[in-house]
Design brief:
single chain, 204 residues, mainly alpha, two-stranded parallel ribbon, 9 helices, 4 strands, globular
Length: 204
Amino acid sequence: MYRKCIKRILDFTVALIGLIIASPVMVIIAILIKLDSKGPVIFKQERTGYKGKIFNCYKFRTMKVETHAKDGRELTHDERCTKIGNIIRKLSVDELPQLINILKGEMSLIGPRPWIPEYYKYFSKEQKKRCDVLPGITGLAQAMGRNNLDIFEKINYDIKYTQNVSFKMDCKVVIETVKTVLSKTGAEIKQEGIQDEINMLKAQ
């Protein structure tokens, strides 16, 4: 009952209330992003959702639109990150727009993080089980260490979650996620790290 009905009702209700409460902060963040660098406020990227379905995941833009410096050199990941982008990432508020994804039924509050489609291409049949539920803003892998875990540890935690979805499990994930964020455990993964993980999946 929780998995099939109650979880969705909780997701929609919390996301709607969250958007209303967070809207003043989101407006301020949007203004700061526009003042800090040119480009859209919201960054949309294709991610893999439930059963491998592709959807547009929303985030506040934290990167510069430019990919190259004035001298023609390609900018590194760190160089592309904007000043305000660094701040909102550290505060873990860059993903607030994903509350809209939840209202649309594309995401949940709790579930495996939605990864770019490139990952899904190299999942084994067993690994694809991490997509048996809606992706979440946070999940068991994030609660247990985020990017301190290797790709296979993350997937194993995600599968464990999909097989044990319950209100108790979701409460545990929320509590542990708060602890992880406050302790700043597991820094955000960089583009180089993403490619490394994809290569590990290819080689399995």
